[in-house]
Amino acid sequence: MSRLGALYLTKHTGPKHTATVIVFHGSGGNGENMKEWVNLMTKKFVFPHIKVLYPTAPLQPYTPSNGMMSNVWFDRTDISLSAPEMLDSLDRIKLDVLQLIKKENELGIPNNRIIVGGFSMGGALSFHIGYRWVKDLAGVFAFSSFLNEKSIVYEELKGSQFKGPPLFQVHGDSDMMVDLSWGHYTHDTLTSHGVQGEFHVLQKLGHSLNKRGMNMIKDWIDKILPDE
Predict the structure, then answer these.
(1) Catalytic residue list contains 91
(2) N or C: which end of the chain has fewer CB within 10 A?
(3) Which of 27, 89, 126, 175 is catalytic?
(4) CA distance 75 to 10
(5) Residue among 25, 2, 207 at smallest CA distance from 102
(6) What confidence tens digit (pLDDT) does each residue in 66-118 have?
(7) pLDDT recorded at residue 208
(8) Is 207 an annotated catalytic residue?
(9) Is 12 a catalytic residue?
(10) What's the predicted TM-score (pTM) here?
(11) H or E segment and range at residue 125
């Protein structure tokens, strides 16, 4: 049984659903707020053929918040590039994510017509999904996100011939929570292992979405998932 919270969605506006985008919120958020935020930034994040899903992370203790209960995709020892990953926590969310993707498969949407992405921790989760667990997805995007410097994602890419989907990464140059250098390090390391990606720096942006970044992501999704 899935541990995920409420699932929110935006239906395709055309006659046929042929692709899906799954957007994962940051730590402490939820699917409803993420949907509202994204649509505020893009004046409706809608597509004629694409359904957009906004799942909610499980409510669980979060170590960086002194163990307080929070809607987070996985636990961390610390919000730091050098902190080790908590692999047991990542393994638990893997089961929920795979179930979410399987439901789209059962509706007739193959993996190569699914994009995953998210903000902050949601983007970090998407790195694990696209470059560890489901490498035949259509794409991965991340807004203000990073992987730990010794991430298992890098280790698994080293030994893999198939490097996974294209990556679109966006990061503000004034991010005080996830430093821009962390985002650069993540992108540079992924691409050094064979991932094909783009990295865009947004001026005067802190740890937040903004209109320019979300519209860039929307345009990229249109390119990666054209109508069939």
Answers:
(1) no
(2) N
(3) 175
(4) 28
(5) 2
(6) 999 999 999 999 999 999 999 999 999 999 999 999 999 999 999 999 999 99
(7) 97
(8) yes
(9) no
(10) 0.97
(11) helix 121-128
